[in-house]
Amino acid sequence: MKVSIIGAGNVGATTAQRLAELDIADVMMLDVVEGLAQGKALDIAQAAPVMGYNVDVAGTNDYRDISSSDIVIVTAGIARKPGMDRDDLLATNIKITREVCSHIQEQTPDAIIMTVTNPLDVTTYAAVKCMQQERGRVFGMSGLLDSSRFATFIAKEIGCNVRDVNAMVLGGHGDSMIPLPEYTTVSGIPLTKMMEKETIDRLVQRTVNAGAEIVGYLKTGSAFYAPSAAIAIMTEAILKDTKKIVPASVYLDGEYGLRDICLGVPVKIGKNGAEEIIELKLTKEQEQALKQSAEDVHQSILKI
Ligand code: APR
Q1: Do 191 and 45 share a structural domain?
Q2: Residue 14 belongs to domain with CATH number
Q3: What is the pLDDT of residue 132?
Q4: Do residue 151 and residue 113 come from a single domain?
Q5: Is 119 helix (H, G, I), strand (E, B) or coil?
Q6: 236 to each of 19, 259, 288, how far by Cα in Å?
Q7: Known catalytic residues?
Q8: Residue having the nearest C-alpha atom to atom 10 of ligand 1
Q9: Each residue of 216-259: pLDDT tens digit?
Q10: Same domain flag for 161 and 206
Q11: Who lines ligand 1 at CB under 6 A?
């Protein structure tokens, strides 16, 4: 199996490291910056004898090296700085996404594409439109990251084992994302039975701001440890065909009453990518929030 990662920055290189440590596929990293992907790949490869993985990790500036990939993960682009929201990245990152997708189309047209570059739902939409691929074979990683952040805050609040928390976040990967307490459980117990509404609201708000909270600390970039963890687990789900159900940004064609848009919804991940969209029964309030989130993404799509 071969996974290519476009962009060898913080997210791309950390993803390469995580994939190597999972020992599930050869990894090819590509970046526009001369030597960057090669240097980081060599460093990761030299950890193999110590860590005990046995996959090939390489770097390149040449798109021909991504041919015959099973999956291509797109992290190329600029990252957020303090005071920016994900939409401030729009023009630059859409241009980069389109350029990257045209190379993927040329070199490895059958690969499954996972977009990561922000604003996520819009870059995913651009990738869907650029690639001549079946729906579901091009999707964006966002909801698993947002759910993981929500689960982290819940476990900290309760003081419980984080592995017992199963959280669900829908909608766009931006300020209008929708953490769903009704579909979030702790060892099977609905969150709504474990906490007061005010506490849940506070954790929901922290989840919505989680990316910005990290940007505020880092000042020169955005999160990459949790994003790369979510990418690695979704990649593993494809390579091992695990049918894991996670929220991801997919092209909607009538599901949830929405059309011609990419938005985060629960999907089943297997060897063909996002193989099935799971439609949850939403309350009127949640339905309205999802519509609003779709409208926000739609406004950004109109700009591109
Ligand atoms: N082709 C290939 N690589 C590119 C291109 C391009 N056209 N344009 C930029 N890059 C590379 C940069 O050289 C850089 O190494 O993409 C990399 C981006 O890395 P970082 O700046 O470290 O950003 P990172 O934190 O990895 O975030 C990447 O993921 O989570 C999102 O919002 C984040 O959109 C951002 C993306």
Answers
A1: no
A2: 3.40.50.720
A3: 85
A4: no
A5: coil
A6: 8, 29, 34
A7: 173
A8: 76
A9: 999 999 999 999 999 999 999 999 999 999 999 999 999 999 99
A10: yes
A11: 6-12, 31-33, 36, 75-77, 79-80, 89, 93, 96, 99-100, 116-118, 221-222, 224, 227
